[in-house]
Structure formats: structure tokens, C-alpha cells
Amino acid sequence: MSVIVKICGLSTADTLEAAITSGADMVGFVFFPASPRHLDIDFADSLGRQVRSRAAKVALTVDADDDLLDAIVEQLRPDWFQFHGSESPDRLRSIKRIYGLPVMKALPVSTAADLAAVNNYAGVADRILFDAKPPKDATRPGGLGASFDWELLRNLDIAAPYLVSGGISAHNVAEALLVTKAHGVDVSSGVETAPGVKDVGLIQEFIRAARASE
Predict the structure, then answer these.
(1) Active site includes 8?
(2) Which one of the listed residues 8, 63, 66, 186 is annotated catalytic?
(3) Which domains does the chain have, with CATH numbers?
């Protein structure tokens, strides 16, 4: 099975095009004002039309209400929702029923105890994303460039396919996949020169490295 490669936090036409033409399977757009990668809803239509059907469009939100999800669906027409907040399994079920879209649920990991919640979501979410748990004073739940102990995922057995994120770059993506046996990787800060500033060359390098690990 090919590794799923997702480039997240895209907000410009040139970096989006680089991700798609380099072979990203999924391209992510962040709708969360506290993030430096936040995408204005009015610009989502333009980027969504640029993608067409060349990659799966993923809308990332944090505890979004239905009004925001409605606006995202109208403007971006996403293929997936990705949730990084405290959304419950019941909330995910409701969203899937309302919008008819697959969902990915991010779960923060720091210690083995953090994996206890996995089975609550694995039967509902179509994919799980394991990310590094943010520090208590963080203003956003991800995209901080921090990693977690990938050994925690070794021999993991859950019902849903899973991706790994957090502190991953072209230099360590092969190791991340080898240790975690994840079905894919999700990168944001690892292809940036500054928070929210994606780099075309880093995107291309990351995707090449991820594909080489296959």
C-alpha cells in the first residue's frame, strides 16, 4: 500500500500547486484564526477550484460549529473534514450524517496513557491522526513542530487507518514511518521557513523522501 502523504496548512496558489504536482495525496486547509496557517473562508473557493480532483481537499477545524462547517462546505467543497479539538465521537457521527463526508480525528500523544482514547474514535473516524500533545500554554493544538515518542505507536492495532504528524520533515519521515507503521504522514511546519510560510522546495523534498520510504 502506498504511503498517504498530506501537506497541511496550505494558503497560497504556488505552494498548493507544488504539493499537488509533487504527488501529495491530500492537501489541508486550516480554518482556525489562532493558527498562522488560518485560511480566510473567502479565499477557500479559489484554492478549492485550483485543486480540482488532483488531490483530496481536507478542511481542518478546531471545535467548529455548524455555521462554520456550512461555510467551509459551500466555499471549499472539501473531500474530508479533519478535527483537532475536543470533538466527541458522537459529534463526529453527527457531522458525518449531516455532511456525508469522511472525517479524520487528531489525537494528541505524549505518553502511553494518551492512547486510551483511540478505540473510542477508531470505530467512528475514517482515519486517526496522531500528533504531539501541545504544551498547556499553547494557543493551538497542532502545527507546533514538536514530535512525540514514535515508539508509543509500535505494534499499535486499531480499527481505523492512521497517520502520524508532529515534528516530521524530509530528514526523519522515513524513520517515522518505519517505527510507527503508519499508513501515512501529515506535515505542516516541516515544510516551512517560518510559521505559516510554506516553501516550494521543502514541499518537494518532503514528498520525495516520503515516497522513497515506500
Answers:
(1) yes
(2) 8
(3) 4-212 (3.20.20.70)
Q: Retrieve residue 93's grid coordinates.
A: 457521527
Res 148 pLDDT > 70: yes
User: Angle at which helices 200-212 and 13-21 pack, to 10 degrees?
Assistant: 20
75-80 long-range contacts, CB within 8 A, separation 24+: 75/41, 75/42, 75/44, 75/45, 75/48, 76/29, 76/44, 76/45, 76/47, 76/48, 77/48, 78/29, 78/48, 80/26, 80/56, 80/104, 80/126
pLDDT digits over 25-51, tens only? 999 999 999 999 999 999 999 999 999
pLDDT band at 144 (very low <50, low <70, confident <90, very high): low
The one catalytic residue among 65, 90, 131, 199: 131
Residues 6+ apart with CB under 8 A from 65: none
pTM over 0.85: yes
Helices marked H in the chain = 13-21, 41-51, 66-75, 89-99, 118-122, 173-180, 200-212
How far apart, in whole angstroms, are the C-alpha atoms of residue 107 and residue 129? 6
